[in-house]
Design brief:
The chain is globular. Strands 6-7-15-11-12 form a 5-stranded antiparallel sheet. A 4-stranded mixed sheet has the order 1-2-5-3, with helices on one face. It folds into 3 domains: 77 residues, 2-Layer Sandwich (Uridine Diphospho-n-acetylenolpyruvylglucosamine Reductase, domain 2), CATH 3.30.43; 124 residues, Uridine Diphospho-n-acetylenolpyruvylglucosamine Reductase, domain 3, CATH 3.30.465; 76 residues, Alpha-Beta Complex (Uridine Diphospho-n-acetylenolpyruvylglucosamine Reductase, domain 1). The protein is α+β, with helices and mostly antiparallel strands.
Length: 292
């Protein structure tokens, strides 16, 4: 396909996707673009829709597995500064969908706004956090979401307010729409106390991550009333290996990829663990992983 002339300078053909994911696994995108403005993003989506080209949006890559065959469509990166702007007006914070969640959290806390600090240490973008209703410590991002501006995969822009949004545990009803921006209603607090609390959480969460293992993901969602780590340990799956991927022997909720790892290795290991946990505990572990 040939994109419209004013968009062609944005398109990269056969762009390797592995470097954009935490696992460093996967093949290329047929088309790849990093729009620098909202207008370019909308035009790219509309052009792809008109040509019946499938679209995916690349976030932080922390819960993404790309198959070796790659993605036969258009992959959009929202990493441009203009798509991740953060604004604060009194107790309301508005962020672009491409904004890093960590940046949003630290800005809110620095401004003395409570409501997002519990999300410190969760990787990815605001858009991804809303799609999956990121949660920690019993609270989720949906609880303070005031409105979300969306771009459908057909190129239509709409805004949904709080009473039009549905969030549940690790889930939202945003579907495949692209998050252009979101507004959060927060509460005024003491920035010093909020910062101390955030820093303590950050230290704890950093200490839980396997050391010296850069290619790490958490492929499972903690079910209600339990943790994936505990269930995996009960099933005797700590440290299990499949090909060049394994579960961390100390913190088995983490999947670690080594040199030579493939998407087939990852999927095979996940299937083995889910089957064994289901057999031993009766609980069906849900995946915290997008597969392209």
């Amino acid at each position: 396909m040939s994109f419209p002339e004013h968009l062609q300078h944005l398109i990269c053909n056969d762009e390797p996707l592995a470097p954009y994911t935490w696992l460093r696994i996967g093949g290329p995108a047929c088309y790849f673009a990093e729009p620098t403005t909202r207008e370019e993003l909308v035009d790219l989506v509309r052009a792809a829709h008109a040509a019946e080209i499938p679209i995916r949006v690349l976030g932080g890559g922390s819960n993404l597995l790309v198959r070796e065959s790659g993605f036969p469509g258009l992959v959009l990166s929202l990493s441009a500064a203009s798509l991740g702007e953060i604004r604060v007006e009194e107790t309301q914070l508005t962020a672009g969908g491409g904004a890093r969640l960590s940046h949003v959290v630290t800005m809110a806390v620095g401004k003395g706004l409570a409501g997002l600090g519990h999300l410190i240490g969760i990787p990815g973008t605001v858009g991804g956090a809303l799609q999956g209703n990121a949660s920690a410590g019993g609270s989720d991002i949906g609880q303070c979401t005031e409105s979300v501006e969306l771009l459908s995969l057909s190129g239509e822009i709409s805004t949904r307010n709080r009473d039009e949004l549905q969030f549940s545990y690790r889930h939202s009803d945003l579907g495949d729409s692209i998050v252009l921006s979101a507004s959060f209603q927060l509460e005024a607090g003491d920035p010093i106390e909020l910062t101390k609390r955030m820093q303590k959480l950050w230290i704890v969460r950093r200490s839980e991550r396997p050391r010296d293992e850069p290619r790490v993901i958490t492929p499972f969602i903690d079910p209600d009333g339990a943790t994936a780590s505990d269930l995996i340990e009960q099933a005797g799956m700590k440290g299990i290996r499949q090909g060049a991927v394994s579960l961390d022997p100390l913190r088995p909720k983490y999947l670690v990829a080594s040199d030579g790892a493939s998407s087939d290795d990852v999927l095979a290991l996940i299937d083995i663990v889910r089957d064994k946990v289901s057999l031993q505990t009766g609980i069906d572990l849900q995946m915290n992983l997008k597969i392209w």
